[in-house]
Design a protein that fits this description.
This protein is of the alpha+beta class and 334 residues long. It is 49% helix and 13% strand.
C-alpha cells in the first residue's frame, strides 16, 4: 500500500480522491510527516514505525499528549489513528515556529513571548507524578544521561570529529561524564520534563504557542527543559535576557511549589545541565550529519560548542572536562 492510499484510509471514501498530500520536513526522528489538504481544510498525517501494531494506550505520544491537554497545555488535537499502520492524523497548527519569531521580534516582544512559553513549561513541570505510568516511569537517571554522553562519544568524538581528541583523552572525558551524570541525578528535585523543549518544537498558531514532539517526556531536574529553551542550538538569545528568564523560571516554579532548591543551587544545576544537554545535542547533530547524511544540522554545531566555555569557566565541576574538550571547542571557534 502506498503512502497516499494509507493516509486516505483516515478520510471518508468520498473525500479520498480530492486529497493533496505533501511531505513535510521532519525532525531528527524516524517519523514521517505529511500535510493533507482536502475539501474540509488541512491536517497533518504522521507515520511512526514505533506506533505500528501498538495499543494506543501504550503509545507515549497519545499518553503524554492526553496528559498535557488535561492540564491545559495546548497540543495538536488528534483527529484519527490507524495503529496497525503506525498512522496518526493531527490538527494542522501551521508552519511558524518560535525560532522564526526569535529571529525577527524586538527584544521586549521576544522577552514577553519567552515568559509566556516558560509559563507553559511550569504548567508541565507542576504536573504531579502518577506512580508507574508513562511518562512518570521514565527519568533522566545515570544510565540515560550516560547513553546521551556515549552517543556524543560514538558519533562525535569517534565519528564526525574523529582525530580531534586522542583515545586516552576520550577515556578520561568519559570518566568526567560519569561524575557529572552522578551529580545530575537528584531525584528529590525531579519534575516532569518535555525533554526537547526548544524553539523548533513550539509552534505559534494564531499567535498561541502549541507544544509538539513531547512523546519522550520524562522526570528530571527542572533545569533540563529550561536549558533546552534558553541555551537553544537554534536561537542565540541575548545573555541578559537569558539571565532574566532563568530567574523568571525559578520564581514561577517557587510560586507553584514545584522546586525546593535555592536560587544559587538552581543556577549551578542550570550550568551543569546545560553542559550535558548541549553535549547531547552535539551527538545528535554529529549522527545526523555523518550517519544519516542530513547536513541541515551542521550549522548548529559551532553555536552549540560556543555555549560550553561559559559553563566550564563558571563551574569547577566542569573544569577537567573543559580542558579535555578544548581541542574540539577551539576547532570550531570563530
Amino acid at each position: 500500500m502506498d503512502t497516499s492510499e494509507l493516509i486516505g484510509r483516515l478520510f471518508p471514501a468520498e473525500e479520498r480522491r480530492d486529497l493533496r498530500i505533501d511531505r513535510i520536513k521532519g525532525d531528527a526522528s524516524n517519523r514521517q510527516y505529511f500535510r493533507v489538504s482536502g475539501r474540509n481544510g488541512s491536517s497533518i498525517a504522521c507515520i511512526d514505525p514505533a506506533f505500528r501494531g501498538m495499543e494506543p494506550e501504550d503509545y507515549a505520544f497519545l499518553t503524554v499528549g492526553g496528559l498535557l491537554a488535561e492540564h491545559g497545555v495546548r497540543v495538536p488535537e488528534v483527529l484519527g489513528i490507524e495503529s496497525p499502520e503506525g498512522l496518526l492524523l493531527l490538527e494542522d497548527c501551521g508552519d511558524r515556529m518560535l525560532q522564526e519569531e526569535a529571529e525577527t521580534a524586538d527584544a521586549e516582544s521576544l522577552a514577553g513571548r519567552y515568559r509566556q512559553v516558560i509559563d507553559i513549561l511550569v504548567s508541565i513541570q507542576s504536573i504531579r507524578p502518577r506512580t508507574g505510568s508513562l511518562p512518570f516511569s521514565l527519568s533522566f537517571d545515570a544510565e540515560k544521561l550516560m547513553f546521551e554522553f556515549d552517543f556524543f562519544i560514538t558519533h562525535g568524538l569517534n565519528g564526525l570529529f574523529s582525530g580531534t581528541l586522542e583515545k586516552p583523552s576520550i577515556a578520561a572525558l568519559r570518566r568526567e561524564f560519569e561524575t557529572l551524570a552522578g551529580l545530575l541525578v537528584r531525584k528529590e528535585h525531579f519534575v516532569l520534563n518535555h525533554r526537547d523543549y526548544h524553539s523548533r518544537n513550539i509552534m505559534l498558531f494564531r499567535d498561541e504557542p502549541v507544544i509538539i514532539d513531547f512523546q519522550d517526556a520524562r522526570l528530571g531536574l527542572p533545569q533540563y527543559d529550561a536549558v533546552s529553551l534558553l541555551r537553544d542550538s537554534y536561537v542565540n538569545l541575548d545573555i541578559s535576557m537569558v539571565e532574566s528568564l532563568k530567574e523568571y523560571h525559578f520564581t514561577s516554579l517557587e510560586r507553584h511549589g514545584a522546586i525546593s532548591m535555592a536560587f544559587g543551587e538552581y543556577l549551578r544545576f542550570f550550568d551543569l545541565m546545560a553542559f550535558q544537554r548541549n553535549v547531547k545535542a552535539l551527538g545528535t547533530f554529529a549522527y545526523q550529519v555523518s550517519v544519516v547524511g542530513n547536513r541541515t544540522f551542521e550549522p548548529s554545531i559551532a553555536p552549540t560548542l560556543a555555549f560550553l566555555p561559559a559553563y566550564i569557566e563558571a563551574r569547577p565541576e566542569l573544569h577537567a572536562a573543559g580542558r579535555l574538550m578544548e581541542p574540539l571547542i577551539s576547532s570550531f571557534a570563530p
